[in-house]
Amino acid sequence: MGDRSAIPALITAVGDNNPWMQLASGWALLKFGEIQGLPVVGRLVQHPEPLIQREALSQLRGYGDQGFPYLVPYYAARLDSTNDNDRNNAIIRLGKFGSASLDVVPKLRALLVSNKKDSPGYAATILGEIARDTAIAWQNGNLSEDQRQQAISEFTQVLSIMQAPNARFNREPIDRVRTGLATLRGVQF
Length: 189
Hints:
Layout: H1 7-13, H2 19-31, H3 38-43, H4 50-61, H5 68-78, H6 84-94, H7 105-112, H8 119-139, H9 145-162, H10 171-185
Helix pairs in contact: 1-2, 2-4, 5-6, 6-8, 7-8, 7-9, 8-9, 8-10, 9-10
């Protein structure tokens, strides 16, 4: 109903043992622009009940960048799925987190050379997006020097795989990785 006087009660309710109460309270707090429910909702992505997981994932997206520390590990774990749709959906989702997905690049790089259905192509596309977004983060001062060095190392390996003689990747993701690397290395075009 929009009554901010309910916030203290919602903060108490988010600590309830019932995951549905936690989700409802977290959602209400989020609608007020409050983030006290974030850690509780973040833990619910590991709940054994799939419906609770889905609701928590949906709610975490509403937290923007603050939800990334919970979302990235969730989708990174799905990269090992034997279900092609689950794995490929996780690849696509990881592309939404930009440089926050930098630690997942080794797993995505491994998928470039896998025989998993459609995963190499999806991984190439998303790696191109992550390289681009990481370079932008560096330009905007949102990346540490250690992260920059990590990105240079990771994307150098990615580019090597994508440009191998028998590799069959589209030009656009290769160009994004190449351009991202050049920016991270400080090379001007």
